[in-house]
Specification:
TIM Barrel; seven-stranded antiparallel β-sheet; eight-stranded parallel beta barrel; about 20% helix; Immunoglobulin-like; single chain; about 700 residues
């Protein structure tokens, strides 16, 4: 005999266990009936009870089941009109997962009837399929939310001290043989001592994890023997995916995720989640009915206004959330608060964030979503990172997000790549990017750290491949190499491939050091693409979203080039940490220092003279120097104390020939000490100095850093 259903409460939404039973609450404006279905934890195919949720409060169907405890598997069947031409797609034959579920057990089986219509029929999505989908749908899981956090606290690293490491939960440790096999590719793998030590050595203050929300492998990938490795195909916005859990999928994944966060925090490392609120795995009108579509399609999705059979699509994935509806805004905000308050994460990177700002059609910088974020007492205080574009018209919005937000600076990536590739006319733009991109962020009241600087990321080539291939090689994806960005690299590094002659490999490594160095020498927040420091190659594949294999998993068995790269990366991170002038809180002002002719930032030609307007407009200039004064007017720490450090001189030469660079008289008192030469690496010989007013040779395609050494 099944437990008696009690009225319960309309809030909180989802399944909430109180120690004696569980409250269930589901929002649907247009539903006519909602059934809560229980399944046997020992045999998930067996339905053990069905309860009609007859209590309705503000469109929320709710009920309380005494004795329903953690580990209980459940789902919903929602009845109502099936009128696709009107945007209504209710089908009680389809078992639906709870949008607020905190954990899932099982996966989508594409051989089961998970579509609401009869595939292959005339006007197929207008047809109605009455076959039961329960055999092919994951089960929502009631969980015990309790966890001993002990003294865990958010590190709250200031933005200008931050170094982000973008990584994949599975990819970082799947091949790490120094940890237990059962931990490889899991949340606990990231919490292992070897990984924590590696991240600390790199100076990492925050890991940015590719999506961990429960997600679905698309049918077309399964048919090709592939899977959705990156995870940008969310089924739920609350549940950590069980595929990265080494301990189980009946709530253990939640406990394991918390253990990971706790360990990272203990090491002083923040956790930032890459979140995908811009679409769901249900796709367009021909997609499956797994959750939102069957619960209340017109509430949760943006439908074409004059033809609601179809979906607005700003992401190229088939659907977009209905950000104009209060319940959708509430869903996203509830999700964000849950991850901060219950799971203790420290911030979010919003995938294709421009989509979330679309209220009518255009991207609206004052949209309801931004307004809610701005006033929320929890979310307004964590790190917020936008991927500031989508694929819709007017979707490229770099520099246009409001205060509180930082942005992936796509202009930084493109400019730095073009400069070191040797393209004409990029001296002015690379100077702007090095100085913190004030042209993009200053007018909106933001600081240099609004710019998340990166050269490579998960979506594109690895650093090694960037300097090793002249075109993409995505054949393994099964799309005839048509997928992924068409990048014209032409790095002049010789024949394509991960290995070639010594001279070619030396140039490749040097170009990689140039790119990595400039990333850490620029104002803003550097983001490392995980694996780049290990000299990881994807064999030229710049779209490994479906490659859950060696193309994506980091290889920790380093060869000599890998050893050189990781050692260089560690030194580069330490150099940034030791030089406050590289971590300014405010933009440069061009102020003179202590009545001298030196200003806080000065741009120099190879003859030692300051750049003039004609120089900036030059299309042929590929060599530039920048002096960063260690005396920084207006720069203070959190105690209000003045911040000072060494004066640095950074010399960039993207020419294919060496250039003699004169150190202008009077820039410093005494000598310059050589600190870094990307041809040789870091210089530990304190006797390698150059007199002020002297000349230093900057090798072809080389970056130098010198610091004032006094008299």
């Amino acid at each position: 005999m099944s437990p008696k259903l009690q009225p319960g409460r309309p809030y909180p939404l989802g399944a909430t266990w109180d120690g004696e039973g569980t409250n269930f609450a589901l929002y649907s404006e247009h539903a006519e009936k909602v059934d809560l279905c229980f399944y046997n934890p020992e045999n998930p195919a067996e339905e053990t009870a069905r309860h009609a949720l007859r209590e309705v409060t503000g469109y929320v169907r709710h009920g309380y089941v005494e004795g329903a405890c953690p580990g209980q598997l459940y789902g919903y069947r929602v009845s109502g009109p099936y009128k696709p031409e009107s945007g209504l797609r209710f089908n009680p034959a389809k078992l639906l997962v709870d949008p607020y579920s905190k954990a899932f057990s099982g996966a989508v089986d594409w051989d089961a009837p998970v579509f609401g219509y009869i595939a292959g029929s005339d006007e197929e999505d207008l047809s109605f399929d009455d076959r039961d989908s329960a055999g092919g749908v994951p089960r929502s899981v009631v969980i015990d939310q309790s966890f001993d956090w002990e003294n865990d606290h958010h590190p709250r690293t200031p933005w200008h001290h931050s170094v982000i490491y973008e990584t994949h939960v599975k990819g970082i440790t799947k091949k790490l043989e120094t940890i237990a096999e059962e931990q490889r590719g899991t949340y606990l793998g990231i919490a292992s001592e070897p990984v924590l030590r590696h991240l600390k050595n790199l100076g990492v203050t925050a890991v940015e994890l590719l999506p961990v929300h429960e997600f679905v492998d698309e049918h077309h990938l399964i048919q090709r023997g592939l899977s959705n490795y990156w995870g940008y195909n969310s089924l739920s916005f609350f549940a950590p995916t069980s595929r990265y859990s080494g301990t189980g999928d009946r709530g253990q994944q939640v406990q394991e995720f918390k253990q990971m966060v706790k360990a990272l925090h203990a090491a002083g490392i923040e956790v930032i989640l890459d979140v995908v609120y811009n679409h769901t795995c249900e796709g367009n009108e021909l997609g499956p009915t797994l959750s939102f579509r069957g619960i209340d399609n017109p509430t949760y999705y943006r439908l074409v206004p004059d033809n609601p059979r179809y979906y607005m699509d700003y992401t190229g994935t088939g659907n977009s959330p209905n950000m104009r509806h209060p319940q959708v805004l509430k869903l996203i905000m509830d999700s964000l608060r849950y991850w901060v308050q219950e799971m203790h994460v420290d911030g979010f990177r919003f995938d294709l964030a421009a989509t979330l700002a679309r209220e009518l059609h255009d991207v609206d910088r004052l949209s309801a979503f931004f307004d809610i974020i701005h006033q929320d007492p929890v979310i307004s205080r964590v790190k917020l990172i936008a991927e500031p574009w989508d694929v819709g018209e007017g979707g490229y919005q770099v520099g246009n997000f409001p205060v509180l937000w930082t942005e992936w600076n796509g202009d930084y990536r493109d400019t730095v790549r073009r400069f070191w590739r040797g393209d004409d006319g990029h001296v002015g733009s690379v100077a702007s990017r090095m100085a913190g991109s004030s042209d993009l962020y200053e007018e909106t009241g933001r600081r240099p750290y609004a710019s998340i600087n990166f050269v490579t990321a998960h979506d594109g080539f690895s650093l090694r491949d960037l300097v090793s291939y002249n075109e993409k090689h995505n054949e393994a994806n099964g799309e005839d190499n048509r997928d992924g960005a068409n990048e014209n690299l032409s790095w002049n590094c010789g024949v394509e491939g991960p290995t070639n002659g010594d001279a070619i490999n030396e140039l490749r490594e040097r170009q990689a050091r140039n790119l990595f160095s400039l990333l850490f020498l620029s104002q803003g927040v550097p983001m490392i693409h995980g694996g780049d420091e290990l000299w990881h190659t994807k064999l030229g594949n710049n779209n490994t979203y479906c490659q859950d294999n060696d193309l994506s998993w980091y290889d920790w068995s380093l060869d000599e080039a890998g050893e050189r790269m990781v050692q260089f990366a560690v030194r580069m991170a330490a150099f940034r940490r030791d030089n406050p002038v590289l971590r300014r809180r405010k933009f440069f002002l061009g102020r003179r220092i202590r009545g001298t002719d030196i200003r806080d930032i000065m741009w120099l030609r190879a003859d030692g003279q300051e750049m003039n307007e004609e120089d900036w407009e030059s299309s042929w200039l590929r060599c530039i120097g920048v002096l960063l004064a260690g005396d920084m007017p207006g720069e203070t720490n959190h105690k209000g104390e003045s911040v000072t450090g060494a004066t640095l001189l950074i010399l960039l030469n993207a020419y294919h020939e060496p250039i003699d660079f004169k150190l202008g008289d009077g820039l410093v008192r005494g000598k310059w000490s050589m600190r870094l030469d990307t041809r040789r690496g870091f210089i530990d010989d304190t006797n390698e100095t150059v007199d002020d007013g002297g000349t230093v040779q900057v090798g072809e395609r080389t970056l130098l850093v010198l610091s004032e050494s006094g008299d």
